[in-house]
Amino acid sequence: MSNFEPWQGYLVNSTGDYHYICSPWKFAGACVFGFDSDYTTMAIALVRYLTSNGHQITLSDIDEKVSKSTLLAATEVTPDGSKLNLLCNTDASLTIASGKQPNPDSPIDVMRELDADIYNDISTAWLEELNERNISQGAYISGQQYGESLEARLSLVAQDHGSLIWPQRQLDAAGNKIDQIYKKIEPAGVITSWTKLSAAGAPSEFALRAPILGGISTVMIQTTDGPNGVFLLVDDGSVEPIIGKSVELVVRRLYAQEGVMRYGLKALLAG
Fold first, then answer.
1. Torsion angle defined by CA atoms of residues 117, 118, 123 and 124, in that order, rounded to the nearest 10 degrees
2. pLDDT digit string (tens) for 76-121?
3. Whether this model's pTM surpasses 0.90
4. Between the CA of residue 211 and those of 131, 197, 207, 223, what are the distances in Å?
5. What is the pLDDT of residues 192-204, one digit of tens each?
6. Are 223 and 189 within 8 A, CB to CB?
7. Average of per-residue pLDDT across 169-191
């Protein structure tokens, strides 16, 4: 475990031009994804880890299991001009490397075991939700609307209008057009309020998973740079929200619509 570093809810092993990330969860002796993670969320976390350590990441190949549009919207990665490849492994792990190298042994001995019933039920629920015939009864967001705002939401791109405004909008409170000057918000903050919706009271987008998870928790966050926002908690977190507690904002699965996975920021509590 000494070569692995916790990062955004995952475990990272990075040496030279070889970078490996895996889930901290296991089931039946294998490394598996948490309740709202997949290869895309994990790839974003690894690129953000490398960027935070001063790397400028360009990729010559991105595994088809990763949503390329989501990765590009959420990070500063460039998809060409490099010998680095992003490859998904057979378990809940992936690598960014310049060539084929043996993966480090996953730290199975320190991974947390997922409850069998919940893991199986959540996996089944996601499959049902991804079915094109599964139509949400909640607020409909078209693929075009989702794509147009993806970078602003995943990368926390705010408008600088004397003070930072996020999410982005056309007019301020006085009806004046907002300046088209942008700044990225630090993806961190503190909890100012929180609530937990019961399974029956959760939006229909979460109707299949909310009963399994015992409801859906949301938190109001005041970001380090000022703007406030409401975010879901990561689904596999086990820490109770506390007002004043620090969080980081990470990319996770939100819900599926029209057979397509929708991603967004969720709050990850420390500890």
1. 60
2. 888 776 788 999 999 999 999 987 767 777 788 889 999 999 999 9
3. yes
4. 19, 11, 7, 30
5. 999 998 888 888 8
6. yes
7. 87
Domains of the chain (ranges; CATH) run: 5-114 (no CATH), 186-269 (2.40.50)
Locate 51 and state its tokens.
């960027």
Distance between CA atoms of 86 and 200, rounded to whole angstroms? Answer: 40
Pick from 93-97, 203-207, 230-234: least confident: 203-207
Q: Is 197 exposed, middle or buried (0-12, 13-18, 19+ CB in 10 A)?
A: middle
Scanning 99-258, the segments in alpha helix (DSSP H) are: 116-129, 143-148, 150-154, 210-213
